[in-house]
Amino acid sequence: MEQKLSRQEASEAVQEHGWRYLLGALQTSVPVGTLAQAINLAADAVAVCGNDADRHLCIDIRPDLAVFTLQSLDHAAVTARDVELARRISAITDKSGFLPEPGPGTGAPRSVQLLEIAIDALNIAGIRPFWKAVLGYADEAGAEGPEDPLVDPVRQGPAIWFQHMDRARPQRNRIHIDISVPHDEAPRRIEAALAAGGLLVSASRAPAFWVLADLEGNEACVTTWQGRDS
C-alpha cells in the first residue's frame, strides 16, 4: 500500500471522488456551515484513517471550510495508501451530508491550490543554506541534496525550489511564484489572469506550466501535474 504512484495514476485514482493531485499530494476542500461542523468532520476523517492519519493526513479547519491533504510523509509522495484514505474520507463526508470538491464548476472563489516560490541562482548550493536558515525550513523526505527544494516542516508556508541560471540577469526578476492548480482549473485561472491585464509570456511548456506576467513584467507560473510524467 506504500507503493508510490505516478502523477497520472494518482490523479485518475481520486478525481471522481472530489480530490485533485497537487505537487505530490492529494487535496480536497469541503464546505461546511460552522467551525463545529468542520471539527467534527476532521475528527471523523482522523478516525477513518486510523493509525495512518499521523503519517499521511493534514487538515486545515475554518468556520466555513475544511481542507484535507494526503501525502506519505515517509516518501514525500502520493502512495496507494493515500488513495485509499482519500476514498475513505470521501465516504464519510458523503455520509455526513457534505460534498468534497476541488472547486472548479462549483461557484467556489477558487479551487484547491498550493504555492511554490522559485529562486533563480548561479550557485544554488551556496544560497540554499541561507534560505533554509532564515525561513526555518527543512529538507523534504528523500531530498537532502545541496540543490534540492526546501519545505516548511509545519506546512504553513510555500515550498522553495531553486532554478539554475546560466548567467547573471540583473534586470530580470530573480524570484517568482508558482501556483499549482488542478489540471482542469488551469484554463479558467489563466483566462482570469489575462482578463485582469496579465500577459502570456510563454506556453511552450504547457500543460506543465504557463508563464504569465503583470504589466510591469513580474512573473508567475500557473502549473499542473500534466506533461511531467514520462
Write the layout of secondary structure elements.
Blueprint: H1 7-14, E1 20-22, E2 25-31, H2 35-49, H3 53-56, E3 57-61, E4 65-70, H4 80-95, E5 114-121, H5 124-135, E6 138-139, E7 150-151, E8 159-164, E9 175-180, H6 186-195, E10 199-202, E11 209-213, E12 219-223
Parallel strand pairs: 5-8, 9-12
Antiparallel strand pairs: 1-2, 2-4, 3-4, 5-9, 6-7, 10-11, 11-12
Helix pairs in contact: 2-4
Which labels suit this protein?
single chain; 230 residues; alpha+beta; 28% helix
User: How much is the radius of gyration in Å?
Assistant: 18 Å
Structural class: alpha+beta
Classify the beta-strand content into a percent band.
25-35%
The main pleated sheet reads as: 6 strands, mixed
Low confidence ranges:
none
Order of helices and strands: HEEHHEEHEHEEEEHEEE
Taking all residues together, what is the mean pLDDT? 90
Task: Summarize, please.
With 230 residues, this protein is α+β, with helices and mostly antiparallel strands.
